[in-house]
Amino acid sequence: MKSVASAPGKVILFGEHFVVYGVRAILCAIDKRITATSQLLDERKIRVRSEIGSVELDLDSSSNLGSITSFMKLFLYIARETLKEFNEEKGVEIVLESEIPAGIGLGSSSAACVAATASVAGLFEKKSKEEILKKAIESERIIFEDASGADSSVSAFGGLIAYSKDGVEKIDFKNNLSLIIANSKQVHNTREVVSRVREFKNKNEKLFSEMCEQESKLVENALLSLKRNDLRNLGLLMSKNQEMLEKISVSTEKIDRLIEMASKMSYGAKITGAGGGGCIISLVDQSNVVGTLENLEKVSDCFVAKIDYEGLRYL
Ligand code: PMV
Asked: Whose CA is nearest to atom 4 of ligand 1?
């Protein structure tokens, strides 16, 4: 028997970086998924296969997870814990297939974690989204100690969430907006960009705290615009958010160029995630999707994404 589950990636619509200092961020799940397929093996092994690499653990050997440095160890952990939970003596194989480009801030590792957790558990029992999320966050923290859980939450529940240090809140209105995601192809390191922003804050305490206030107001305003489906205002707010990100120096020349091309026809555009590379998002509808795509295709790889309202899916 095979157990198949999938979970979506995400973008940050508003509030990245400022969220680290207490401002709320708005995240949304996108219609690009990772699918995990699990099946029990007669051999006492855990095997994980994906396009970005494969890893194996012999359940009877003395080698343990500690000696594995690859990020894929996350999935070995998920599988081993689930086999233990259900007193299963057999091994397991997980195959991961992704529509989400990896390492560019679109939440691919959290989505993989949610999908793999649900898929392996699904060999024994179909667990609720809440239960899967709890396990997925626990597993993610094996690798990313300070993972906030925001990416996994939006992946498990789908739709939009507001996230702050106090926790995750589901936003329960629906909106049919479309985004164009364009990849700068500049490799970024979230941790390094976050620490650069901290330096900026330490050198400019007063300015930074004013910026946090402005960003909080912007996020409140964005929530209202989302509720009213007011794309024009939402786009303006995205562009304002981009200006804030530029002030804290997380944009790059390449990103500035993408923003310029995206802004020609879309309602607004901004970085999604840490910046210093990675992706931008631009807000569009029927009237400007083709024009914006044409402009962005001249300078980047890009694709259209919609909000995914389903989150974790068992197939
Ligand atoms: O690069 P991403 O999409 O994982 O986003 C990082 C978001 C930051 O606000 C920059 C950091 C954080 O931990 O919230």
From this structure: 105
pLDDT at residue 63 greater than cutoff 80: no
> How far, in Å, from the CA of 15 to the mean position of ligand 1?
9
User: Residue 64's domain is classified under what CATH number?
Assistant: 3.30.230.10
Over residues 6-31, mean pLDDT: 97
- Based on the fold, state whether residues 225 and 289 are members of the same structural domain: yes
How far apart are the CA of 278 and the centre of ligand 1, in A? 11
**Neighbouring C-beta atoms of residue 266, cutoff 10 Å:** 28
Q: Is 97 exposed, middle or buried (0-12, 13-18, 19+ CB in 10 A)?
A: middle
Host domain of residue 73: 2-173
Q: Looking at the predicted structure, is the pLDDT value of residue 188 above 90? A: no
Interval between CA 122 and ligand 1 midpoint (Å)? 30
Ligand 1 binding residues, C-beta < 6 A? 12, 16-17, 19-20, 105, 148, 190, 194, 273-274
Q: Residue 238: inside a domain, yes or no?
A: yes
Cβ partners under 8 Å of residue 233, min gap 6: 221, 225
Q: Are residues 129 and 212 in the same domain?
A: no
**Residue to mutate (ligand 1; options 30, 153, 194; most atoms within 8 A of CB):** 194
Q: What CA–CA distances, in Å, run from 199 to 20, 192, 196, 202?
A: 13, 11, 5, 5
- Across the chain, what does the average pLDDT equal? 94
- Of the candidates 31, 42, 146, 151, the residue annotated as catalytic is 151
For residue 151, indicate whether it is catalytic: yes
Q: What strands lie across the sheet with 279-284, from one edge to the other? A: 268-272, 279-284, 178-183, 301-306
What pTM value is reported for the model?
0.94
Taking the CA of residue 17 as reference, the ligand 1 atom at the shortest distance is 9
Residues 36 and 151 in one domain: yes
Q: Is the pLDDT of residue 131 over 90?
A: yes
Determine the pLDDT at residue 8.
98
